[in-house]
Every structure is written in structure tokens, then in C-alpha cells.
Amino acid sequence: MGVSHISNRSEQQSEGWSRRGILAVLGAVPAVALTGCSSGSADASEGTDGSRASASTKASAVAKQPVITVTPADGTKKAAFASPVEVTVTDGTLASVKVTGNDGSTLAGSLDDARTKWTSAENPYSGTKYTVTAQAEGAGAAQTSTFTTKSPGETFVGYFTPEADSTSGVGMPVSINFTHAVADRAAVQKAITVTVEPAVEIVGHWFSDTRLDFRPETYWAPGTKITLGLRLKDVEGTDGVYGIQSKDVTFHIGREQISTVDLSAKEMVVKRDGATLATYPVSGGDSDHTTWSGIMVISERFKQTRMESSTVGLGDEYDISDVPHAQRLTTSGTFVHGNYWASTSVFGSQNTSHGCVGLHDAKGANDSSVPGYEFYASSMLGDVVIVKNSGERTVDPANGLNGWNLSWADWKAGSAL
After folding, report:
1. What would the mean pLDDT of 31-41 be, rounded to a whole number?
2. Active-site entry in 205, 325, 337, 360
3. Which of 38, 45, 116, 245 is deepest in the core (most CB within 10 A)?
């Protein structure tokens, strides 16, 4: 799995300003002036020509200066990051507003019809210092103020499968496991995008409050390019718990390999891009330890690994330190793997395992002539293994990367959007 932390929003800036842009509008503030007129009339004047002295009155009004107000207020140290930035002006109109973070990002926004209020299109990021530069039309110098948003308290991240820049088989879903239970599934799912080339409908499905998988209706087309967009930073997954990731991750789908295990015939047929690549004799789970049936996806691969019965609830029935060519099919412990301890005659004739699918192999995992080695060498993460006629019910879709066992309608019903 991979996880990455916050990406700098300046990475997405475009020429001139940034992806969030700077909105500048021009308006005019009408000058307000009050003026008065005077008139004269004759009046008797003491001792001379009887003329009346004239008096004039002049009145004027001084135009009011625009007053700009920024919210959050200048100097705020722990401003909320769940509300947009606002800039208002009285006795005037706004000419331009620029909001810049200390991470190089900018906040785009828009004015109301009266051009007296500017509101950012998105909320500011947490833990960031912002500088707001606002200019009123016809006024003098621009006004500058600063504020710093508070850091979130508790946080969560999503660990994703497959790994960044990896190539997988056609059955590999995009699976995200969150480090904290998600209450607002719609908000979190909305902040995650999965886009593909060639284009096809992709839908998310919640298996639990900590796991969200994405897949198309049918297996991926070979050669598909998948881009996972995580925009979880400051998304409130549950009360007071915020995401911290903002990143794009790319995966690729390789060739198609689908292997079908028929435990009645005790053989596995491997098809590559529709053509039969190989047929191997196998041994599946015995009558007391039947193998899950259904569509399963290879989620882990080990050239050699230890398998211990106590880890899967089977007491001390076995403990093998060097199982060769093991490929995981379920979280609960189902593998397709090499087997060097059983007689060669078992494969293709008897189901004797504790639930895994076994192929003849050699101790040490270095003999390239045996089926266990060959199948492992031909496989990759995300390859599909279908088990039928095992005497067991279909595997739980959440048990491993096995969501293909859900119909498309049932898969879509698990989306929060």
C-alpha cells in the first residue's frame, strides 16, 4: 500500500495567477458632494446708502472613504478553516482581491452583484498563513491583512492499493483503507476520484466505515491507465477528524490472466489474453477444510513464506516455515501455493489441503521445472483466480480484493453518492 501527505497547491497553478485565480473587478465610486447657492436682497444699512448687506452660505460634503473588512480578521492566529474567506466594503466597491497562502497557493473567489462582497470559492487550508490584499475602486493604497488557520486536531489518511506507478492484473480494484472510521461517507467519497483511460464508468463501494473500493462493471481492459485523485485534506470524515492528503496517484493494468481451478477435475487452466497458457494438476481443500469458491484476486506474493495453522484458527495442525511460491487469495488465509511435502501423485487426483490450492513444487523454490514455480513466474498482483466445484460457498466479497463476486447492481448500491 502507499500513502502520501499533503501536496502543495501551488503545483496546480496556471499562468498569470493560479488554479484558484485572482478575481479583479473594476467599478466606480461616485463622488458625493453637497453644494449650496446664495442670493442677496436690499436692507437699510446704518447711516449710509440704505443698501442691504449680502450674506452667502456655502455648504459642502466630504465624500466618505471606503472601509474594507476581512473575515477572518487581521491578526487572527487560529482561524477556522471550515468557512470561506470574505471581504466586504462599505461606502464603495471592490476593485480587486487577492488571497495568498504561505504555501504559494491562492484562493479564487467571486463578487456579489453590488460588488461590495467577495467570497472565496473554497475554504482555506488548515495550518496555513494567508495574506489578503484588497483594493477599493477610487481609493488610495490597497489594504493588506493576514490570518493563520488552526491545525486540525485528529486526522486520518487513506492507504491505497495498488502501489503508485505499479502494473497489475485485470482484477485489481482500487482499494482504500482509512486509519479512522468514516461517518460522513458521502463527503469522503466525493473527495476521491478514479479516472481511467480508456474511459469507463467507475463506482465506489463501501465494505465498512474504514474501507472503500472502486471498480468498473467488468474486469479492466488490458493496458488501462488509472489515476486516483485524493483530495481529502480538511475533509471532515467524522466529527473533529480531518483528512490530510492531497495527491494524484497513477496505476497501470497489464495483460489479462485468468486462471480457473476446477476442484472436481482437480486441475487449473491458465488463460492469458484469452488463450490457454498452461494446465496444471492441483489439490484443493479436503472435505473438512473446503476451499472458498468464487472469483478471487491475487493480493500478495511470496517466493517463500511461513504458514502456521494457529494463525487461521486450526490449532497446531501444521507449521511450515518455507512454503514456496505462495500467492494470497483471501485475507482469511487462502493461498494458491507450491507444495513439496505431498506426494506428486496427489496433484490431479486428491483434495488434501486445509483450504489452499496446491501445485507440485520443490523445496527451496528454485526449481523452474515444477508447476508451482511456473505458475508463480507467470502471475502478478491483480490476476484473477476462479475456484469452482469446491463444495464451499462463494467467498465473502470483503474477504480480500474479491468484490467481483457482487453483481453490478449490488456493487453500486454500496456507493455513498
Report:
1. 31
2. 337
3. 245
